Amino acid sequence: MKKSYILIVLSTLLISGCATRSPVVVSEPQVKVKKEAVIKVKEKVVRPIAVTKPSADVIMIDHQYFKIAYNLKRRLPEYVTYQLAAEQLRSKSAERKNKFVPDPYLVDKDLPYVVTSEYNRSGYDRGHLAPSADFAWNQDANNMTFVMSNMAPQTPGLNRDAWKRLEDQVRKWACGEEKVTVITGPVLADNLPTLKSGLEIPQDFFKIVIDETAPKKMIAFLYHQTDKGNVLKERMVPMNNIEKATGIAFTQDFPELQSGKMRVPASLNEWKEADCK
Predict the structure, then answer these.
(1) R_g of the chain computed on alpha carbons
(2) What pTM was computed for the model?
(3) Residue 191: how many other CB atoms lie within 10 Å
(4) Theoretical Cys-Cys bridge with 66: which of 82, 87, 180, 196, CB 3.0 to 4.6 Å?
């Protein structure tokens, strides 16, 4: 009878141990991802993100200055989010070094990652989602924007023209409104074309901007790989268009986006602009 009781207790403990899984927290690793390319990662938290169709393939990586919801199966970010303040943009102490590297957290944990050579001679740019220019106020932050988990394939016309204009506009809004939250990413649709390495090429990209100063408001955009020039007005869309396209329930991860808490969406002329130079 005593042996049977012990076996029952042990079985119960084993089952309960398998039923739950705590988030992974990693502190202060220094990972050498290639010769003479070391990035210090101060803190990382891995957890599932809120999606319409939950997937164990998506994790959240905290790079201190910005967070990446990363799709392990597709090796692309679902989205990248960060705050941008006028106070930061008034300081430009960092140098853009263009040292693209695999994400050191993914390398350290032996998780699927992208190497920079996958883009070589592909005709596509390594398109930043958290742009280098938004982090010109801190060298460590600026260096971190060059992790490949912060990239997605973009045509030169989009990356260097239309998308760059949108990024410039967001910085003007951050300077005028004092602080904004930015959520940006590719639309990971089905049956996308790929690079030779198999990395998918998104055909659309979104950007959501949240004004963090009263009266709060939000604006959203959906850009296409073929976009060039100033298409800001044409690419402004309702929030639910982006949720439908991506399958991500942003109102769950960002409760402030729920109706009644802010002006959604705000028209272009409601946003204050300024130059932080």
Answers:
(1) 21
(2) 0.82
(3) 5
(4) 82
